Amino acid sequence: MTDTKPDLAPLPFIDLGAQRRRLGAAIDTAILRVVDHGAYILGPEVAQLEAELAAFCGAKHAITCSDGTDALALVMMAKGVGPGDAVVCPSFTYTATAEVVVRLGATPVFADVEERRFNLDPAGLDAALRTARERGLKPVGMIAVDLFGHPADYDALTPFCAAHGLWMLCDAAQSFGAAHKGARLGTFGLATTTSFFPAKPLGCYGDGGAILTDDDALDATLRSLRFHGLGPDRSDHTGIGLTGRLDTIQAAVLLQKLTIFADEIAARNAVAARYAAGLGDLATVPEIAPGCTSVWAQYTIRVAPERRAELSASLKAQGIPTAIYYAKPMHRQSAYKDFPVAGNGLQVTDRLADEVISLPMHPYLDAETQDRIIGAIRAVLDAGRTRLRARG
Ligand SMILES: *Cc1c(COP(=O)(O)O)cnc(C)c1O
């Protein structure tokens, strides 16, 4: 027995248990079915999941794979990305985005993001190409990240890539299910990749990922590369690939989760709307572009840098977890600090790194619990505002 007061009970940042209770025995049954039928690699659930993922977002092909990082790698391997190539990508992202570029021997060129939606700023892209050429590199492509669940600015990025002969790869690891002007992610650029890491909006019970594309030739190449470059006649290997498949058991888990995913996206949007209504006057809350839908992988607000540590400490003391995504953008990380940044530096990225703080976000965050979180945040930020006024 604990005698913690109910209003101080620690909250989860992401409540996977609530989803598990909702789905009941369905996932256990689905897993046991795979254990019994024995087709552990590329079993029937994998093909069914690929058909359902493609249908869900309106893409022609879905190719499942081992994780969201290999999804990015497989597409760039299919494009033959290598030394001398430059790939434009944001620095304000999870490390995997540019890690694969480096692993293939190419060079990431970090470009700035725009502050309302945390995604690539079209205004900084010319500078990124100039920076690449000044270094003697050939710009070949762009990785547009749909950060925190929000679609990138495809109205601007798509024509930019077309005008400069770049392929566009959409890293929707945090954003499967999000939509841009009526079209779900999965239908933009050369290909879209996603991740089924457990904490992502659509997560499995381990590692998993997928690639979505409308390109038939790319689909065939990716299926070969994820299986060691296996050729059509299955005795000849025609490419150098990876052990890059999604386990059948994970496909079975995802098929069950997909049945409630649209409903969970709606619930995430209700949670986001309550945060915006409760905090919009005291903090900078994220803005979604008109006509776009986010899946809210993170609910990330911005506060004055000098208030952030106090806010997270106060919330932590009250059992409310927060996270800083991303305290160190990629161009500030030890392994990446020598790669080029576009133009004169990434002012917005650097500022966001000091201001952002992500709040508990999942589809099962009820209004009462959320009021407790909002109240705790308001208490800190309101007190700070009063102090400022007193000083001024
Ligand atoms: C999580 C993530 C990845 C990598 O996905 P994994 O499945 O963990 O390999 C890539 N890009 C972004 C933006 C991510 O958030």
Short synopsis of the structure:
This protein has 392 residues and is α/β, with parallel strands linked by helices.
Kindly describe this structure.
This protein has 392 residues and is α/β, with parallel strands linked by helices. The chain contains 13 helices and twelve strands. The protein has two domains: 17-258, Type I PLP-dependent aspartate aminotransferase-like (Major domain) (Aspartate Aminotransferase, domain 2, 3-Layer(aba) Sandwich); 261-391, Alpha-Beta Complex (Aspartate Aminotransferase, domain 1), CATH 3.90.1150. It has helices spanning 16-23, 26-37, 44-57, 68-78, 96-103, 125-134, 154-163, 216-225, 248-258, 261-279, 305-317, 347-355, 367-391, and strands at 61-65, 85-90, 107-111, 138-145, 167-171, 179-180, 183-184, 191-195, 209-213, 292-293, 299-302, 356-359. The strands form three sheets. The chain has a seven-stranded mixed β-sheet with strand order 1-9-8-5-4-2-3, sandwiched between helices. Strands 7-6-10 form a three-stranded antiparallel β-sheet, with no helix packed on it. A two-stranded antiparallel sheet has the order 11-12. The longest helix is centred in the last third of the chain and has 25 residues, at 367-391. The chain is globular, with a radius of gyration of 22 Å. The site of pyridoxal-5'-phosphate has 15 residues, from helix 4 and helix 5.
Number of DSSP strand runs: 12
Tell me the structural class: alpha/beta
| CATH homologous superfamily assignment of the largest domain | Type I PLP-dependent aspartate aminotransferase-like (Major domain)
Give the amount of beta strand, in percent: 5-15%
Q: Biggest sheet: strands side by side, in what order?
A: 1-9-8-5-4-2-3
Ranges where pLDDT stays below 50 over 5 or more residues in a row are none
Mean pLDDT: 95
Tally of DSSP helical segments: 13
**Which distinct ligands sit in these coordinates?**
pyridoxal-5'-phosphate
Largest sheet: 7 strands, mixed
SSE run: HHHEHEHEHEHEEEEEHHHEEHHEH
**Outline:** globular
Terminus-to-terminus distance:
49 Å
Query: If you compute it from the alpha carbons, what radius of gyration comes out, rounded to the nearest whole angstrom?
Result: 22 Å
How helical, in percent, are the residues? 40-55%
Q: Give the tally of structural domains.
A: 2
CATH architecture of the largest domain: 3-Layer(aba) Sandwich
Oligomer: single chain
